[in-house]
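Lab notes, practical 5.
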Amino acid sequence: MGERHPQPTAAKPECTQAKATAGIDAGRSAQTMLRRLAGSLTGALTGAVACVSLGIVSVLALASSAAETGQAMVVGHYVWFLSDPEFGGFSGLELAEDGVGFTAIIDKAWIATGRLIRQAEGAVERVELTDFTALRDTKGRRLNGENIDAEGLASAPGGGVYISFEGNHRIAYHRAPEAAAALVPRGGFATKLQNNSGMEALAIDREGALWTLPERSGGVETPFPVWRFGKGKWAKMFDVARSDGFLPVGADFGPDGQLYLLERGFSGFGFSTRLRRFYPAKTGVQQGVELFRSRTGQWDNFESIALWRHNDGSLRATLISDDNFHFLQRTELLDLRLAQ
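Output from the prediction step:
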């Protein structure tokens, strides 16, 4: 069995949330309130089975200032906080088809599972964490050293997950959270990946093939190559055009069969986020369709995306941020309704 997080105190876990008034844009005052409240919340992690969500809900009726293209609308924003030293650093997220069940990875080689409790319109209002397990190597030992930097996550159609790692660049399959890893054959491109800029984005298509691309392309005008692993072979599929300083950090296939790419920008004053949609059947250099772009500093460091369909038939995207285990950053969940 894999190592699970140790049981802390016997006190019952609390699940609380605060709602902000809905409006066109929460604006600076709401952002200031969120930051102040995020620092004052406390919680408890109860090991294998726990209801451990402490957070803040900010439901926005419209997000014209964030989604300048008009292709996405913010329906909810949630700050997730636990007073546990291992909490944070979320770099990968996968959701069940209904957007409730989740699997997430932390870039210190932990894997978490649970449920996102949502309001009727689809915004997260509470998080229930049910399992929190250390990832293992091919011999069943806990990962350490340069092997721990888990970045991309993709759920396998037959069960289990694929995880991409930086540092020691590789993709591993785990049939269960506590199971030993099985390595996917490396592509020739892996030898050219930069140390801290590897396969940060990972997705899986309907046929069970893996898709990935490097976080850096080697030049500010050089496109990002997109690679696919299927039937035991790697093949280059197309290139993603690089622009405006954004770098790819997360990817997922939607129920519509299209590839959605989450990108991060950093100006030195804060993070920004962009979401583009690509057509996997096309070749050459693709610009993609921009669906969403945030203002610098509007939210935190979003690193992963998961697509799902709401019961009203609309296409949704949920983003999770990596707080880098830094006290000035937060773990945030952002819910978007996407135009189709």
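Observations recorded by the TA: Residues 6-53, 59-68 have pLDDT under 50 and may be disordered. The first strand starts at residue 16 and ends at 20.
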